[in-house]
Amino acid sequence: MPSLPDMTTPNLSELAGKALAESGHVTVPAPDAGQEQFSEWLQRMGDNALILGHRASEWCGHAPALEEDIALANQALDLIGQCQLWLGLAAEVEAKGGDADRLAYLRDAGAFRNLLLVELPNGDFGMTLMRQFLFDAFHHTLLLALKTSSDSRVADIAAKAEKEVAYHLERSADLVIRLGDGTAESHNRMQAALTKLWSYTGEMFADDAVDQAMADAGIAPLPSTLKAAWEKTVTAVLDEATLVPPASAWQHGITGSGGGKKGVHTEHLGYILAEMQFLQRAYPGARW
Amino acid sequence: MYAQLVKSEGSKSRDEMTPEEIAFQERIDRGEKIEPKEWMPEGYRKTLIRQIGQHAHSEIVGQLPEGNWITRAPTLERKAILLAKVQDEAGHGLYLYCAAETLGVSRDELLEKLHSGNMKYSSIFNYPTLTWADMGAVGWLVDGAAIMNQVPLQRTSYGPYSRAMIRICKEESFHQRQGYDIMMKMCSGTPEQKAMAQDAMNRFWYPALMMFGPSDKDSVHSAQSMAWKIKINTNDELRQKFVDQTVPQAEYLGLTIPDPDLKWNEEKGGYDFSEPDWSEFFAVIAGNGPCNEERLGARVKAWEDGAWFRDGLMAHATKAEERRRSARHAAE
Ligand SMILES: [Fe+2]
Ligand SMILES: [Fe+2]
Ligand SMILES: [Fe+2]
């Protein structure tokens, strides 16, 4: 093992200066704050779709029935398609050059803006379905509101995505009901999933400065305003499924400096990206 | 092709046939389609179940080698295309299990036979997918070989199988084009990408040739299946067609086919080429290919881990039916 001093970079500022000189980057004028926040918000939309789509795609060929293999692949496909639209627009708004692929493949975990809920490991199929249901109910309410966004590009994407997500919700709600009110084992698994995931639902409705700016511009609703509709859907489905959410649960990602929307993720996201970005990282600049 | 070494039942000469069997054979000879409710010889039914079942199993096990790269696809567009492809393969499995069900065998029975090792799937899916170029090679060569076999099967004598093949073939040719498109990108890319493409070609060429199965020109099983029009061409005919079609495509990509003896034979109007190593083929069929354990293991695990899910849905359906019944009683 080399001695510690060998491993210490001799002169950081000198190296940084050299790297800057070699990079040939032209200084880009900073976009106005509104555009930066808009792009940030678009990345939240795109990253939720990308990471949940990634998780769904992990089931390909391993689901408990052929119909589920097909449904999950289809859902993943919808989400990846939506991610292309949201991140494509984010890149356009950001105007730093590049496209949806650059955002998906060349940002590190700290720049990802997805909710913690969607990056959690799949667990058993019950956990995957419960996560999908809790997110679908939120996603659908959000997209419905976005159809009347003041930004026509957002409204167009939402109109397309809303149809797909309505179907996702119909499917996940139906399965949650059937499995919750199925056998003792299926009930227990769905209940365990609900209890665990409930702590990650609060983040969906926590407003921050970016959300406020979007609401002020009429681009998107404040997340907190979606909570009542979400609760209505979720309560109705869980009742029918004979499942009960925990009376009180710690909510991750809201208090303190943590939370996916701020780029402070669970340990799981790094592994998703290590896998997802491997080829782009190993062969920089190659076209595929 | 997705059905290899399918043993047919029967092989009767005309003198040994009953009048019913003769009438049945005449219908086939006239090009009529046989439909599920109609009389058919037991051997025809059993052979078809084996063949369609093996084909269905190949589609679902075939999700795995490509599924292996979905989470690592290099662009969002490639990811979407690959997802769509793997989803299609699962759909093909579904159509084919449905076609088999019309012959009186359930999907669960067929899956039980797959899981216990009593039914096979195509040898090709027991090879690993090691680089992104393998997604190209699989689409181009594996789906390409499958199409060779499945296009003629659109004319097969059994109605539901024929209709399943017509739907499947449309999607398979799309898969092949997508695979070739990946290869084009790789071959016009960086030296590393080109090397990956050549390496994929090297690894998949002979396993692709094996997909057609060993020569069956003297096989009684094949003769019977051909008389029944559940097999349309011999394995050698299809393999030759595949080689003749593929060589120019490889040349266009600038890839070398890993066969020093490959050359154009003017007289036969086709290429001469080396046979694959059939001992390797039989080893793979016997369960000793590089990925047999992983592939079958993954399917068995998916099935076993999913038991609670399937049981839960069944239990709910029963409960719901009971509730409906008691609601009806209450109303009366
Ligand atoms: Fe297929
Ligand atoms: Fe296939
Ligand atoms: Fe295919």
Automatic annotation (TrEMBL), chain A:
The keyword Oxidoreductase applies. GO terms for molecular function: phenylacetyl-CoA 1,2-epoxidase activity. It comes from the Bacteria. Keywords: Oxidoreductase. It is an enzyme of class 1 (oxidoreductase). The keyword Oxidoreductase applies. Its EC number is 1.14.13.149. This is Phenylacetate-CoA oxygenase subunit PaaC. It comes from Paracoccus benzoatiresistens.
Automatic annotation (TrEMBL), chain B:
This is 1,2-phenylacetyl-CoA epoxidase subunit A. It is an enzyme of class 1 (oxidoreductase). It comes from Paracoccus benzoatiresistens. It comes from the Bacteria. Gene3D superfamilies: 1.20.1260.10. The lineage of its organism: Bacteria, Pseudomonadati, Pseudomonadota, Alphaproteobacteria, Rhodobacterales. The keyword Nucleotide-binding does not apply. One of its GO terms (molecular function) is phenylacetyl-CoA 1,2-epoxidase activity. The keyword ATP-binding does not apply. Its EC number is 1.14.13.149. Keywords: Oxidoreductase. InterPro entries: Aromatic_CoA_ox/epox (IPR052703), Ferritin-like (IPR012347), Ferritin-like_SF (IPR009078), PaaA (IPR011881), PaaA_PaaC (IPR007814).
